[in-house]
Amino acid sequence: SQGAMGGRGAFILFEGADRCGKSTQCKLLVDGLNSRGVEAELWRYPDRTTAIGKMIDGYLQSQTDMDDACVHLLFSANRWEKRKLMLEKLASGVTLVIDRYGHSGTAFTAAKKQPGLDLEWCKSTDAGLPAPDALIYLEMPVEETLKRDGFGGERYEKTEFQREVVKNYELLRRDAWKCLDASRTIEDLHADALKIAMGAVEECRTGKPLGTLWE
Ligand code: Z5A
Ligand code: MG
Predict the structure, then answer these.
(1) Signed CA dihedral, 159, 180, 110, 42: sign only
(2) Where does the pLDDT of residue 127 fall: very low under 50, low under 70, confident under 90, or very high at 90 and above?
(3) Per the UniProt entry, what is one GO biological process (predicted)?
(4) Ligand nearest to the CA of 151
């Protein structure tokens, strides 16, 4: 593996409201990195392939109902169950491009406005997970994302709810986030994302330590 010689891989995270283009950019970025000789993998949360992920999938498709705290804990557990593999991949020199993470977890659950499930409670279940080396936030007004294809029938795909989600992202936002205007073209956004990612890859290769949430 690249670990011993080339240093660790970088954790690049894409976050942002529904339909802002995260999955599109993740795919392009993994291809762009690989074609530049940077070994990169695409991961996404929720990972619907695990036993926990299948429970989440049933919930999102409204096939099952669940207590709001309980499903929040499942989304979080879905990240914890992949923590060891994440650490191994990064240590072996593989860069991970990840589509949604704990920031989605907190932004979505807190948008339910249930007593007790405030921002701090939502964040607490992810505290200690690996932190992204670069967080690319695709910024877009809800009105604009609604015009895009694919706004579907899953549980959270409702306009008012999405507005609350965006408000929560704003509360979570930190200076270190790389915020890009998601209404630009796919190609322009990709060019910026690639620059940001290559910068993070270089920093990690040369010794930047991996952080933990919620630094
Ligand atoms: N959730 C949660 O509650 N708790 C958690 O802990 C986590 C998630 C991790 C499933 O997510 C749900 O889980 C989600 C949050 C919640 N609920 N909602 N709503 P998901 O990741 O499976 O959601 P998705 O179905 O992939 O949708 P998305 O991620 O919101 O979309 P996107 O990935 O950001 O967008 P896209 O698929 O790349 O693009 C959307 C469309 O726009 C598509 O037609 C593209 O061709 C087009 N597009 C993309 N970029 C552009 C630009 N630049 N210009 C014009 N058109 C564009
Ligand atoms: Mg997506």
Answers:
(1) positive
(2) very high
(3) dTTP biosynthetic process
(4) 1
